[in-house]
TrEMBL record:
Membrane topology term: Single-pass type II membrane protein
Catalytic activity entry: Cleavage of hydrophobic, N-terminal signal or leader sequences from secreted and periplasmic proteins
Keyword terms of this UniProt record: Hydrolase, Protease
Source superkingdom: Bacteria
Annotated signal peptide: none
Name of protein: Signal peptidase I
Organism, as annotated: Arthrobacter jinronghuae
Record's subcellular location: Cell membrane; Membrane
Record InterPro entries: LexA/Signal_pep-like_sf (IPR036286), Pept_S26A_signal_pept_1 (IPR000223), Peptidase_S26 (IPR019533)
EC code(s) of this entry: 3.4.21.89
Enzyme class: hydrolase
Length: 236
């Protein structure tokens, strides 16, 4: 007999295999549950984004991974000085990338694991909110003015001017004026002054607030608007 002993008991060969199979099934179920839980957390609570460029130096360096709160603005207003992550499709990025679907899927997987940046999701600093008049380089003052008041910006990349060209915009309801800290290399609201929407980003496109640098570990720190030293003392 091969399947059972003479007494009808399962053979030793079969009794050894069943626990091993049950163990692997438990591991696979646990891994699947962990992936689903992580996906839910990243879709609704927190996400991790890879920084691919130097447009937010010196605060963020290429290769940094940042923690982004998707719920930060559920019960709070977006404020001047906040560092936000937003979907740039239709504004800073084309609506369709033109890449093969397979390549798009590979990029999405890489971004999910923090191994690649997105070409449609950006991180910038909020300079103007609804009702603000944001101007630069007027009346001989090189600083940006918000509602007529010049503001100091200690977070701007060393050696950069507040802006390479003049602008004067009024931010309408539901829109934001966003700029990178490394002004000389940042593609931001200034880049779209002549386009539909005038470079003003919809608040509905904001994914969340950048709250902490997670990686590399030696650069781990909170991203706090107030701790950056900017004094946003203008009144709308």
């Amino acid at each position: 007999m091969t399947a059972a002993s003479a007494s009808g008991e399962p053979s030793a060969k079969h009794t050894k295999r069943r626990p091993r199979f049950v163990g692997w099934r438990f591991v696979l179920c646990a891994l699947a549950a962990a992936v689903v839980l992580a996906a839910l957390v990243r879709a609704f609570l927190f996400d991790v984004f890879y920084i691919p460029s130097d447009s937010m130096q010196p605060l963020l360096e290429p290769g940094d991974r940042i923690l982004v709160s998707r719920t930060a603005y559920d019960s709070a207003e977006i404020e001047r000085g906040d560092v936000v992550v937003f979907d740039g499709r239709g504004s800073l990025a084309p609506l369709h990338s033109g890449r093969p679907a397979v390549l798009d899927a590979a990029v999405t997987v890489g971004r999910w694991f923090g191994l690649a940046g997105s070409d449609t999701v950006y991180v910038k600093r909020v300079i103007g909110v609804a009702g603000d008049r944001v101007s630069c380089c007027t009346d001989g003052d090189p600083r940006i003015t918000i509602n007529g008041t010049p503001v100091d910006e200690p977070y701007v990349y060393s050696g950069d001017a507040p802006s390479n060209h003049a602008f004067d915009v009024v931010v309408p309801e539901g829109r934001l004026w966003l700029m990178g800290d490394h002004r000389s290399v940042s593609a931001d609201s200034r880049s779209l002054l002549g386009a539909p929407g005038g470079g003003l980003i919809s608040t509905e496109r904001v994914v969340g607030e950048a709250q902490r640098i997670l990686w590399p570990l030696e650069r781990g720190t909170n991203i706090d608007r107030l701790s950056l030293g900017a004094e946003w003392n203008t009144e709308k």
